Amino acid sequence: MADRYDENLILGYVEGDLAPADRTRLEKQLAENPRLRNLVADLVQDRADLRSLPAEAPPPDLMDRITQRLERDMLLEPVAEDLRYPAGGRRWRLGRVVVYSGIAAMVLLALGLVTQTLITTLGTSSPTMPQPAPPSEGAQAKRAAPIGAPPAEGQTST
Prior knowledge:
Layout: H1 7-15, H2 20-32, H3 34-52, H4 62-76, H5 81-84, H6 88-124, H7 137-144
Helix pairs in contact: 2-3
């Protein structure tokens, strides 16, 4: 079974940063749990070993080498589009959206004006269908005669 320990509590104990109440609580756990006691002892020993190492100064040209490497990488390697223009690219995309929205609004406005003009223009003419011209007298007589009747005066039979 894996034991779970409060890492912040253990690290605070090793560093000497614990409040007195937390320190007594952890020391009680250390007395009861040999695995926890061994873990804390190893951490204390590792910390002491690291502190005992001699401090070494970095090479004097370290910053120059890092700067040269960064400059070379910037010149030779392609830069991702997002890194090249982080804010400008977003602004450009937003600008396109605004322009396209404006064009769409103008098209809708033009369609509305054309529709309104057509409705107004067609609305001023008479709403009824135009009536055909009255027929001539001969056509009236021809229509009035029943089928099979003799032709009226002045009409020829067809």
